[in-house]
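Obj.: predict assembly geometry.
Materials: sequence records (below).
Method: joint structure prediction, all chains together.
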Amino acid sequence: MMRSIVVKISPEGATNIEAFGFKDNSCLKATDWLEKALGKPIKRERKSEVQQQQEVKQQ
Amino acid sequence: MSHLTKIETKISDIDALRKACHEAGFTFSEEKAFYWYRGTNPCDYRIDVPGINYQIGVIQTQEGDYALLYDNWNPIQRRYTQELPTAANKVRQLYAVHVATKQAQKRGMRIQRKVEKDGTITLTITGARL
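Observations (raw structure tokens):
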């Protein structure tokens, strides 16, 4: 799976950042710059590669 | 392993805020006062929304970021309306879009923008530097 960052911003302004295609903790570094630029992280959820593949199939 | 992060958006990039207002069709200015139910209050920047008497004040907080101050009382209709809160949310949404786009472009990444049916804006960022 190609590495990507998906940012979803709701009409109310709520922002979620999700990293796809990373197999280790490098995903945290990959989104760090974006999190800092946008504001303050208030919740972080770790996801396994299996979970991600299931989500991609559902889309 | 990967992750999902929920972000509390903090407004700190005035250039991105200006672009967000422009895209929304609002007027962003360096006026130092805005009008709301308490009368005229000082602010650092001001946002005027077409057709609405009251304005949105942009005020720097002690932490250094900017807060949007507004009132949902409509003085013409003499009732509470959602026009200014909705406008402020639109500004917050487009601000996040412009900040993310600017930062990704600065890093030479590609960005795809899509508006979902529910109004959510999805940005997909890819590139060799990820």
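Conclusions so far: Residues 26-38 of chain A form the longest helix (13 residues).
To do: check interface contacts against the pulldown list.
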